[in-house]
Write a structure and sequence with these properties.
Blueprint lengths: L2 E9 L3 H10 L6 E3 L6 H6 L14 E9 L4 H15 L10 E6 L4 H4 L7 E2 L4 E5 L12 E5 L11 H13 L5 E5 L5 H8 L4 E6 L2 H13 L7 E5 L6 H7 L4 E7 L2 H8 L6 E13 L3 H10 L3 E8 L2 E7 L7
Parallel strand pairs: 6-7, 8-9, 8-11, 9-10, 11-12
Antiparallel strand pairs: 1-3, 1-4, 2-3, 5-6, 12-14, 13-14
Bound molecules: S-adenosylmethionine.
Length: about 325
């Protein structure tokens, strides 16, 4: 199969924001080339021994992604250029030149697997790619087997980690959990492993839902304990009914700020009295906007956590009625 490879030239500081913008447009499988050295901690977690020589003064960065032949490249480029022009009002996004080339390489979609190795997310949660061996398992470890495929959620992103740390802190055995934007299913699976009685994951991307079901199976968790449904809980009334009202002790949503804001006005109806809304996917420049929305929708903010440029908000619903 032929693919069109698009390579966008930007600058190191803008890589994260440009990548988020591309993902917002539904573009997945990004390849990033820059001169940012990985940290000592990342080197250990990823079991990397040999590091390339980097010219750290060079601030150029390249983000590549692929479109299937037949996808409307012109339309995509137009949307990317619009996105870059919006972002350039906040940060220097560099030249924004886009180079187009054709490739027959159909295995680009699996190339990332080379870099996804088992890693310890905290003291006892270990993420293990399904195709890798785990050599340093300790007593009490919770090992999560994962093949995210093209879905988001390997556990290495700060926003996923922030949600996992919040689940570890607030989830007690027997709770019911709703995971909005479940991606690879990682948060649902971890919630179940932490003792949740029942978990429901929802995602607007049917491919992500298929992946999460496969990951549930690899982790030997039953459908009765963890279910996944495709749909948008913000707008789909049938899904709202299926998800159930005033039912969940915790709703966790790791989606972008622009989705968390409307979601905060809808999610209270699914939470039990005193239930918790754990949200992340919030870039720090949007923290105040999300906090304002969460409070305006009746939530009491219990904690705001930060990791890198990302934020999570843990909020409690003081009453069930009125939403
Ligand atoms: C950043 S990923 C999070 C994946 C995983 N939960 C994690 O924490 O790593 C966000 C996911 O939300 C999904 N999504 C986006 N908008 C949504 C919406 N309105 N309702 C449900 N899912 C949504 C996307 O398809 C994507 O899989």
């Amino acid at each position: 199969m032929k693919w069109v490879k698009l390579t966008l030239k930007t600058v190191t500081e803008a890589v994260e924001l440009v990548s988020d913008m591309l993902m917002d447009l539904g573009i997945e499988g990004l390849e990033i080339k820059d001169n940012v050295p990985i940290t000592e901690r990342e080197r250990k977690e990823l079991f990397i021994d040999i590091l390339p020589e980097l010219d750290t003064d060079n601030k150029e960065a390249f983000i590549s992604f692929y479109l299937e032949e037949g996808d409307n490249a012109k339309e995509v480029i137009r949307s990317v250029k619009e996105g870059l022009s919006e972002l350039s009002q906040f940060v220097d996004t560099g030249s924004g030149e886009i180079e187009i080339s054709e490739t027959e390489d159909t295995d680009w979609i699996n190339n990332w697997k080379t870099y996804f190795k088992p890693f310890r997310l905290d003291d006892n949660i270990v993420i293990k790619p399904t195709w890798e061996e785990l050599n340093d398992k300790k007593d009490g470890d919770i090992v999560i087997e994962l093949d995210p495929g093209t879905a988001f959620g390997t556990g290495s992103h700060e926003t996923t980690k922030l949600c996992i740390l919040a689940l570890k802190k607030y989830l007690t055995p027997g709770m019911e959990v709703l995971d909005v934007g479940s991606g690879s299913g990682i948060l649902s699976i971890i919630a179940s492993r932490l003792g949740a009685k029942k978990v429901l994951g929802t995602d607007i991307d049917p491919h992500a839902v298929e992946t999460s079901i496969e990951n549930r199976a690899v982790n030997k968790i039953s459908e009765e304990k963890v279910a996944f449904l495709s749909g948008d809980i913000i707008s789909d009334d049938n899904l709202k009914e299926t998800v159930g009202f005033e039912k969940y002790d915790i709703v966790v949503a790791n989606i972008l700020a622009d989705i968390i804001i409307p979601l905060s006005g809808k999610i209270g109806m699914h939470l039990k009295y005193g239930g918790l809304f754990i949200s992340s996917g919030i870039i720090n420049m949007k923290k105040e906007q999300v906090l304002t929305a969460v409070k305006a929708n009746g939530f009491e903010v219990l904690a705001v956590e930060e990791m890198g440029d990302w934020v999570s908000i843990i909020a409690k619903h003081p009453f069930a009625e009125g939403l």
